[in-house]
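The aim of this short unit is practical: by the end, you should be able to scan a pair of folded records and say something sensible about each. We start with the first protein, listed as its amino acid sequence and then its structure tokens.
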Amino acid sequence: MLPIKVPPLGESIVEATVSRWLKKEGDAVAAGDTLVDLETDKITVEVPALKPGVLAKRSKAEGEVVHVDDVLGELDETAVPATVGAATTSTAQAAPKPAPPASSAPTAPLPASRVPPSQPDSVKSSPAARKIADERGIDIAAIAGTGRGGVVSKPDVLAAPTQQRPAVPQQPRGNGATPGERETREKMTTRRKRIAENLLQSQHATAHLTTFNEIDMSAINALREKYKEKVEKEHGVKLTFMPFFVRAACQALKQFPMVNAQIDGDTIIYKHYVNMGIAVASDQGLVVPNIKDADRKGTIELSAEIGEIAKRARDGKLTMEDLTGGTFTITNGGVFGSLVSTPIINYPQVGILGLHKTQDRPVAVNGEVKIRPMMYIALSYDHRIVDGQQAVLFLVRIKELVEDPAAMLIE
């Protein structure tokens, strides 16, 4: 028997949750076939078969928490696949039954508009799977369950193609509850638990403080409008506002290196490079992939990398390399309509820049009231090594560079 073990999960990750078994006991597998998916707080890890054989045992059930080197199951390298031997029998058993005698009274089919949907109560399935199947109009009875005992799990439904079934009148529902339910409970995923722990750790382990400023976005708006079509045509990337803020932040971090530093015990580690973290909201929760050596890249290159890394985050295709090594983070709540907020530091970093919604507001310009597109920006910082003066001047530098984009070209 060849043990199937939890592989190394990445930097600082010691546990995961068994998300989904892709093979059943007795299934034949080839070398490289994915046996089980493990969900960590950052990424989903696929555990492949190292050699061909038969999955003899699944030692861990879906939903169980496992640690590095735990045994997930056993692979029999010498066994003959049971599925192959049973193929002939199952085929014979699946042969169509003889038609009933002509004297038997035929049963008239129901009109198409009256075909009842499958009853989820008669199918072994999880509450989350039933909820998603109902929302997507999927017949849950037609889905093969891969959970223990053939239970249809959430990943099974997500992987199933959306099929339209006859419309059935639905009772009004609130917050995803079924009729008559006043409360529902759902177990936290490993990722959600780790996000909660990291946020609490950041609040407890740092001297958390936030300072604010505002930016006139007129110059950046004009620059983007002038070049966005040309950039997309010649380089195939969309020119958004984010790369300009990344460029500005990288230059400001060079001037104020303590905002790009890290505390290790009673030592301050100064980073002479910028791995810029970009907070991305995905269906699995918030992730912060980072662009390596962002301070050495131009606006077009940053635009392409930001678009690519955000797509991988939404598709769940991030690697550990994407998620480790960040030195500073930018989060943009403005895409969801946030006008102002106090972002939480991505510990053990010591600073995070928060961007917000651009909104037309009256401002004083050379003694006159003008309507300008304004954005509030926020810097949350660890007051243990970043003083208030440095934090304020850091934001002022960001403001100066964004309001005068040509200044970014000087360095």
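Turning to the second protein, read its sequence before its tokens, just as you did above.
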Amino acid sequence: MSFTSLQFIFCFVPLAYLGFVLAHRFGGPTQAINLLATVSLVFYGLWSLPLLGILLASMIVNFTVGNVIANLNANPRIAKNLLAGAIAANVALLGYFKYSNFFIDVANQLSETGLEHLNIAVPIGISFFTFVQIGYLIDAANGKLLPHTFAKYIVFSAFFPCVTAGPLVLQQEMMEQLNAPRFPAFDARRVLIGVTMFAMGLCKKVLLADSIAPFADSVFNGAQHGLAMNAGTSWMGAVSYTLQLYFDFSGYSDMAIGLGTIFAIKLPLNFNSPLRATNISDFWRRWHMTMTRFFTAYLYSALAMAGMRNSMNWRWSRFGRFMLSAALPSIYTFLLAGIWHGAGWTYVIYGLMHGIAIATFLGWREFTRLKLPTPLAWLITMSTVVCGLVMFRAPDVSTALTLFSNMAGLQGLGIDSVGLTFDSAQAMSLIVVMGAIALLLPNTQQILYQEWPVIDHMPEETPLAAGLVVWKPRLGSALLTACVMTAGIASIGSSSGFLYYKF
């Protein structure tokens, strides 16, 4: 059941919230949490009961193992081995469902064995709930688990607003809220804030992302089928996909945060106007922020620290220390982040592209004092992002290379392409409008800064960035929210699924 379905908006959420309020009213916070756990399992089960069984089995095993690890304080060696085994089991489960057929393709290419694909149904959101639970296991080994029950663990690892596509939550930030002594179940102000954020995310998805999607699809499909496209058309298609993905996933994240707010749970921020970034490192601090946070905390930091220790012990040069403590950890981390997104060489190359870009930026900052003009720095950053997303979106490496060739002008520099159904004027209009929204207008959390809807600390510049577009819980704001929600619901008919559902 998608967030953009009428059944979800008019049936599932109202019934879930009614049950939440009644459970809290007659059973207190504990029963309200139990209700949230049940609702989350029902939500996932509506996608597929067999896949719900896989999710539930994963949660039971990880919850049990995590608590065993946490109780092995006197046996750190055993705890470490158990942690390694549990992480390996989670990765193996993820690998089986998500990467088996990719491995079969690689084996066929290397040995011409002719192995057939496995008929595997990939559990929706498996990358998200697997990595959330791996974080839980690492926290258990580090003695960071907060008191929790299995119901709280279900809410943490499979809360229905974020189980299918994030944001990636941390055990501590979720348990601190669930362990709070009391919280109001019915709060009209909180519901209005949550509905407002949900409505804004819905409009991002159905009014913006879905409107520009046909232009991106037209160009990528044309390249896949060998149509000749010049540079103008190719760049418009690549930029269209960049904007589509941004408003699609940003919209989903806003909707998830809004739903969490309705149910008295603050989720972490996932986007902070990333298309305004002027270097690739800042881009990743703003784009899919919870994924960046996860890989930084649990992978990059450990690699960087180990690299720094080794380079000092080996007395390497400044450049050697940089390579071992910054460049190589960045490349390795983003390689895994690329593979985390999907099974295919395009994702491998996408991760490498961004890893090398990050390493290059860090090296520039480390070894030069030259600072590029802001417009040039922004242009280089966005060109890197757009080119990376060409590889990310392309169905295969050959199609991506074809588009790169076209973007380089090898088929001409105009905007009209033979055999391609593409309204260049309409596409350009959407690019200009959506680009202006992303670059010039305050983002969702800035508009709502007076009622700060996320668990993250609010940056000091947020009030200034909001400008005059500030939401306040008044009658006028409620009416505006109703208009925005109506506009979004009226456009649902042609809505596609969220792009990140397949990850």
